[in-house]
Amino acid sequence: MAKRQYFQILATFLYNPYLGNFLTGRVGRVPGKMACVPGLNCYSCPGAAGACPVGAFQSFLSGVFPRFPFYVLGSLMLFGLLFGRLICGWACPFGFLQEILHHLPGPKLKKNRFTATLARLKYVWSMLFVVLLPLAFWATTGIGIPAFCKFLCPAGTLEGAAPLLLVNASLRGAAGTLTVWKFAVAGFFLLLMIVVWRPFCRWLCPLGALYGLFNRYAALGVQVDAEKCVRCGACARICRMDTALAGDPECISCGDCLKACPTEAVSFRGPSFHPRTEKER
Fold this sequence. Notes:
- By secondary structure, the chain is mainly alpha-helical.
- The chain has 14 helices and two strands.
- A two-stranded antiparallel sheet has the order 1-2.
- Helix 6 (93-102) packs across helix 11 and helix 9 crosses helix 11 (177-195).
């Protein structure tokens, strides 16, 4: 197992240490949920120790009196400046799940121009569902809603709704059309994960969209020495994300490109360690 996978496993358990809650079907109200974890991990997950940044952001825009999410934006900027999309590749439980499922047998779709277009569209979906729709509902009905969490997020369905419904009969009885829709969306992405490398991460995740904007400035992550780079495309060819160059906004700093660069222009900015490439695993 590569070093990165150890970090992904560790992050998953650090985000969700209250394993006993999965058996009781209750959502823990712990002090840690006043703060955001860096990755996508649903607040309603029974084992969760912290809040999801997307869910926390949407909670500020929901209800009768929307508030400006100062502390959430501050947390996101801090995470972005420290790690950029390294969080996606090393410390996101839902990203880890996508990688696990992609190892299952089945046809595999490699990246192409179409997938690159979808990757760019995640900025549109993120702005629409995370910001514009909550405010639009507030403007038209007087009550803002967490549109992304309510209508789309498969992480919330799998981490929160699924384990809670499994052990709580009263919740199952209250499930309606919206629950069916959310499980249909989650099921679609689960199947897509087998065929496509990290489809949600690449095409829909608001955190990935935001953190990618910080990749160039983050304290940790993959970087390219412009003087050594000959634009041969070796880093992009080995990368399974929709990157055009190592370290760009689509790069999750997995490290697969470090050994692929013929001029050694690609390096890891931060602590002196070198993640193994896929060929070395």
